[in-house]
Every structure is written in structure tokens, then in C-alpha cells.
Specification:
Low-confidence stretches: 73-88, 95-104
Mean pLDDT: 78
Distance between the termini: 28 Å
CATH superfamily: RelE-like
Largest sheet: 5 strands, mixed
CATH class: Alpha Beta
Shape: globular
Radius of gyration: 14 Å
Number of helices: 4
CATH architecture: 2-Layer Sandwich
CATH topology: YaeB-like fold
Helix content: 25-40%
Order of helices and strands: EHHEEEHEH
Strand content: 15-25%
Number of domains: 1
Amino acid sequence: MKIFYSSKFAREYQKLPLRIKKIAEKKEQIFRKNPFDSRLKTHKLKGNLKGFLSFSINQKYRIIFEFVNSNTRAGRSRAKAKRISSSSLPSLLLRKSSVGEDERSSSTTIWFHSVGEHSIYKLWS
């Protein structure tokens, strides 16, 4: 599994309160082990965000992401997304893959597109 961060995500992440950033880092550790861990409250999104998923940082903040098979070239917002430099985010968020993954899961790419309060869903409409 590889996680990439869109430039939009990086901008929004940098604006988060420090307390929320620390919680987000802990949640990302959980996400890397199991994206559907019940502590994350991962769920599929509807409407204009169909195809995307979200998980909770806390009751107020969310991360919008999507799974992308690296063998598939579906366009959407990934076409505009950029790989973020290592100086943009804490080192914990920059690990690109986990040790011990099988071949199938290593072909999965995850894009973190947006982070913010629950109202971020409305910004994508």
C-alpha cells in the first residue's frame, strides 16, 4: 500500500490545529494497518463524492481518500494531484509503504485528497 497526498490535502493539513495534527498522525498509523478499523469510522461517500471514502480524525475532522489500483488509469482529481515533498508533512505521514505486504496489496495506491471539518463534504459538491 502506498499513500500519496494531494497538494490540496497538504495545504489543508498545514492549517489544522497542532492538536488535530497529532491525532491525525495516530489515526494514520491505524489506517496503514487496517483502513477499515472501527476506530476510524471509515465509510463510503455518496452523491458528488461517490467513489471516495472518508475516515474520522475525531468527531469534527475527516480525511477524504480513495483507493486506486495502480494498474488502472482512471482520471478524476488524481490527474491534478501532485506528490508532496517530504518537507510538507510530518515524517510519520510520509512513509510510503508498510513492511510485509503481499503482492496484491502493494499494487494498491491510496490518495488522501482533503482534510478538514465535516463541512469539507460540501466543498466537493
